[in-house]
Amino acid sequence: MCDERRAEARPERPGVTELRLSAFAGHRGAVLPLGPLTLLTGRSGSGKSTALRAYEALARLGGGARLGEAFRDPAGCVPERARPDAQRRRGFRIGCTTDGPEGPVRLDVAIQAEPELRIVGERLTAGGLTLLQTALVDPSRPVVQASWHTAGSTPVTRGPLPDDRLGTALLPLRVAGRTDGQRRVLAAAEQTVVALRSVFACDPRPGRMREAVPLGSGRLLRGCDNLADVLWRTRTECGRRHAQLVAAVRDGCAGPVVDLLAEPLRDGLVRDGLVRNNRVRDGLVRAVLDRGDGVRTALGLLGDGELRYLALALVLFTGPGVLEVDPVAEVPAALQTLTVLADGFDRSLDPRQALELVRLAARMCERGHIRLVGAVSDASWAAGVPGVTVVHLNRERS
C-alpha cells in the first residue's frame, strides 16, 4: 500500500487502541486490545476494575495531572509479589498505544511508588523511532533527565523535566517545533494526549439516583447521583436526542414509557384523598417516567437494573458538555472522542437489558465521537453484536 493510501486509512480522531499493564497490581505482561466498544470480561478477581483504574490514571496524567492526583493509592498499584531493591524501591509499569493521524504511537511509563511516588522512566515511540525518553539520574533531585528527537543539526535535545508529571503532556511547552523532527515529536505527543483525555469513568449508584436533588450545574457526576438535575437541563436542549433517549429507556424499562423528565419536588400532605399544602420545595427536583394518561412513576420506585440501564443510556446520548469531564479545549470538537469507562457495565441488568444497552453503545460508538470500555462478569449475551471487542481476563494472581 502506498504512503498516500496508508495516510488515508488512518483515523482522524485519535483513540487508545491498546492498554499495557506490564506490572500493575495483579497484572503482569497484560496487553489489552481496545476497539471503539470493548468489553472486559472474566471471573471475579481477574482484574477488570484494575484495568479501568489504570486507564483512568493514564488519562489523568495525559491531562496534565500530578502523579498523586492520578494514583491515590500508589502502593496498591505495585504487583503483590514485587520485592524492593537495595534502596527499598518498588513500583509499577503501565502504557498504551494510540492511533490517529500520526499512526500508532506507544507510550510506556515506569513509576516508583515506594519510598516516594515519582516517574522514573518514560518512553514515547512511533515507527520504531524513540521520540521522547526520560530517566531518573539523581534520586536526590525531583527531576528526570529527558531527551527528545530533534533531527536537526543536533539529533537529540536534552533537558530536565519534573518527576511528578507525564513528560509527553509537557512537551508542547518545551519543544519549539522548528525542525521536522521536533514537529514529529509534537504531533505524536498531541495525538497521545488527545486520545487519553476526555475520559468519563461511570458507575451509576441506584441508591443515590432515587433521591431528589437540588438544581446545580447540570453536569452528570460519575455515580449519576444528580441524574434528575441533568434531565432538568437537557430535556429541552435537544428534542431529537431526548426522543432517542426515551426510545432507549422504553427498551430497558418495564411498562409503557412516554417520556422521561424531571419535575419539582412538592411538599404534599394527603387528607381525605386530596393533596393539601402542595408547595414546591425550593430547588429540589426528582426524575420520573411519564407512563401516559397522566400516570407518572418516580425513579425511586424502579429497580436497580432499570436505574443503571437508564443512567448508562443517558451517558451514551450526552457528551463532554453534559458529563463531568475535561474536554480538550484547544482541539476542535470534530476531532475529539469521549471515552466512557463503565465498571460493572452489566451489573444488576438482566440479559435483555444488557443486550439492548450494548446494541445502543455499538450504534453510538460507530459514529466515532464516543468510545466505551466496560467491565462485565459475562459477555456471552453480546455475541453477534457488530463492533464489540471482547477481551477475556482469566489471569492467575501474581
From TrEMBL:
UniProt cross-references to InterPro entries, sorted A to Z: P-loop_NTPase (IPR027417)
Top-level taxonomic group: Bacteria
Protein name: Biotin transporter BioY
Organism: Streptomyces capitiformicae
